[in-house]
Amino acid sequence: MRRRDFITLFGGAAAMSPLTAHAQQRTRRIGLMANLRLPPIERFRQRLAQLGYVEGKNLIIEYRFGEGRDDRFASFAAELVAMPVEVIVVWGNPAAFAAKHATTTIPILIGAAGDVVNTGLIENISRPESNLTGFVALNVELEAKRLELLKEVIPQLSRVAVLGTSANPLSRVNLDTARRSAERLGVTIEAFEVKNSAEVGDALARVTASRPDAALLASDTLLLSERKRITEAFAASHIPAIYPFKEYAEGGGLFIYGANLSILFERAADYLDRLLKGEKPGDLPVQQATAFEFIVNLRTARELGLKIPPSVLVRADEVIE
Predict the structure, then answer these.
(1) Are residues 228 and 132 in the same domain?
(2) CA of residue 43 relative to chain centroid, distance
(3) What distance in Å separates the CA atoms of residue 48 and residue 52, rounded to the nearest whole number?
(4) 140 near 115, Cβ under 8 Å?
(5) Run means of pLDDT, 10 residues per run, the chain, 321 residues
(6) Same structural domain for residues 127 and 175?
(7) Owning domain of residue 64
(8) Is the pTM of this model over 0.90?
């Protein structure tokens, strides 16, 4: 082979090296709707970078955050569809419903949501029949376990206040599950619902006035956006409470028991890669959470005058001293 031919051949191969091919990869644009920019979203971005999708280089993420107002998701979804983005990633049932109503063609990837079947989002999780797929946090199934934990720590438990949102279909499903579990445990459930974050303060005042033995927070991202106010109110009124998301631990939440959402969003990044490479949502089965977090805050327990049984502490993934 002549030297010139060798150089030409080598140069052509170098031009098609992985780094060069990566640099030439076209920019992908996706939408992401959630209430807040929380750690699971950062884990999602980190996993995408590992897969070769680097924000600011070959990936544009159009963020839309409700910040405690689920009613904003409908207009957000319309904006993303009009652009259009290639995939809409959603966190929470309200965002998922808004995206579903906005498009039947753009793939919708659920990073984390509650019961997608009983809320009507998806009928067949093995082979999603619409343009939705993604990951379920199993929040409905966990309601019974949260109540059981409260009963184990507070044997005399008889009345539990449930704080939820009336606009989220998941809250209704969760409440029904909680009531069935409460009846089995000999506990009465009293529901307090809000439509938006502006009503949280009044709802907390009503919960405090009712003087329940404990409180249970619905698996809802609108309430999560008000986590500081909620945890402070329960601490001030000496109401033991159990929460569904790790972020409540920041404000001193007594118990946190729920799916590990960061792991769900990492898995969602793998699904996004497959969708961007041409796979259809219907070929990607909806997957359920397999990793869970149980956090006990002993400092809060002491302030409430609660003694946490060793049988509970030994099951905790994290104990905050």
Answers:
(1) no
(2) 12
(3) 6
(4) yes
(5) 43 44 72 94 97 96 93 97 98 95 97 86 85 85 88 95 87 84 93 91 96 93 90 95 92 93 96 97 93 94 94 94 86
(6) no
(7) 3-136+261-290
(8) no
